[in-house]
Amino acid sequence: MTLIGYTMMCEQAGPKQLVRDVALAEQAGFDFAVISDHYFPWLDSQGHSPYAWSVLGAAAQATDRIPLMTYVTCPIRRYHPAVVAQKAATMQLLSDGRFTLGLGAGENLNEHIVGGHWPIAGVRHEMLEEAVEIIRALWSGGSVTYRGKHFDIEAAKIWDLPDTLPPIGIAVSGPASCRLAGRHADVMIAVEPRSELGQMFDDAGGGGKPRIGQIALSYDVDHDIALKRAMDQFRWFTGNWRVNAELPVPASFDAASKTVREEDVSRQMPCGPDVQRHVTGIREFEKAGFTHIALVQVGGETQEQFISWAATELLPALRAG
Question: Which of 131, 143, 164, 244 has CA 20 to 30 A from 279's CA?
Fold first, then answer.
């Protein structure tokens, strides 16, 4: 059975609310939870972007059973891979083995803050591959010295390691990232319901491994309110990821999405109170071979309402087959 997850969307809620919401999601019966890891929101109207790893630590203490995952962390610019390895090991300990480290090649939106040139996609993939090698080496215990094309590690060691290491997920969007994930990931991550991504992942060595997708929804008892909220906060989602990865600040996403219409958003994102409309959108990921699907409810102020509706209507409809 496909597992249904809840997304702690850091761009639309503050840290205390995110922790409260994931605790409610656990009580509501969601199967897992993921968290975005941003420095900026996509648009100013979203209004938030707390530090995801502090939220994760608090979430691990506020919940008992729900698995937690970064969706996704970029270990090549803003964070050094040695630091990511330490953070993830600590999260696995704090959560009693419930953590998955989701990684990706990043977006300029969050990584430009440390300065320097934003690498092209091919270079970012090289950096991500080295980062995964470093993380796994540090998780093996002992002192690690590493000399790479992009990263160096000097006599590094992680002192607090879990007995069971976190699985590593890698985000994919095309052939190069699917090949990288097939070689190095325990889990495939994607935000588009494209079956060819899973096939390329399988061909590169990922056969039989989980694949986790994510879909944005805008639930509200009033369809027009749901659509307007999605238009205000999530119209950037209609853009091409090759473009989105390059834009540097929220104002860039605002400018790039100026011509997006409400019908464009409605076509890509289920909006309103119709359970079947939401189920249909989620089933597209199932048809594409995804084993896990994380739901993003648009609008920080609507999370409690959404979780209650999901518990009583959406999750039962999805699990009814």
Answer: 244
User: Of the residues 11, 26, 107, 129, which is catalytic?
Assistant: 107
* Number of domains composing the chain: 1
284 is catalytic: no
Rounded Cα gap, residues 126 and 38, in angstroms? 22
* pLDDT confidence of residue 239: 77
| DSSP string across 236-260 | GGGS-HHHHTT--SHHHHHHHTTT-
Cβ atoms of 134 and 103 closer than 8 Å: no
Containing domain of residue 14, as a range? 3-319
Active site (annotated) includes residue 38 = yes
How many angstroms separate the most distant Cα atoms in the chain?
Answer: 58
| pTM across the whole model | 0.97
Kindly name the residue from 11, 38, 111, 129 that is annotated as catalytic. 38
76-97 residue pLDDT tens: 999 999 999 999 999 999 999 9
**What's the one-letter identity of residue 181?**
A
